[in-house]
């Protein structure tokens, strides 16, 4: 019996083929990947897994981690935002507008605390990239979840405080009574 015919090897091969087929079915939902596969003759599963592996490898080299993370956060969302603007549906517009609000707020906060965060979290950009992908994927609705649970309450609180201060300062003083 050769090593390739060993029951454990056969079982492992069957699992790999099963997960490959499942990933292929899932990726077929995205016309961009199907179109890429037809044009390049590279299976979309290999392209996605290879792209993910490339991102992981680039993150292992820390000087490239920040630019790669920013590229992941900007390139695909910019393209899909363009497509959303051109489409007649409004649901995709909401998805990407929400993404950009959350992404912008996150980058704004990051600009204040990046050095401290990098000191305490050595793989910060890897975590940031995973977070950004979670925000982007419509399956998880990460941008909407983050907006609803974090940003909306904060912005509503700021808005209410500003309106209350504005109302107090602009309210006309009561005229003295002439009894």
TrEMBL record:
<feature type="transmembrane region" description="Helical">
    <location>
        <begin position="97"/>
        <end position="117"/>
    </location>
</feature>
<feature type="transmembrane region" description="Helical">
    <location>
        <begin position="45"/>
        <end position="62"/>
    </location>
</feature>
<dbReference type="Pfam" id="PF03134">
    <property type="entry name" value="TB2_DP1_HVA22"/>
</dbReference>
<dbReference type="InterPro" id="IPR004345">
    <property type="entry name" value="TB2_DP1_HVA22"/>
</dbReference>
<protein>
    <recommendedName>
        <fullName>Protein YOP1</fullName>
    </recommendedName>
</protein>
<keyword id="KW-0472">Membrane</keyword>
<keyword id="KW-1133">Transmembrane helix</keyword>
<keyword id="KW-0812">Transmembrane</keyword>
<feature type="transmembrane region" description="Helical">
    <location>
        <begin position="123"/>
        <end position="144"/>
    </location>
</feature>
<dbReference type="GO" id="GO:0016020">
    <property type="term" value="C:membrane"/>
</dbReference>
<comment type="similarity">
    <text>Belongs to the DP1 family.</text>
</comment>
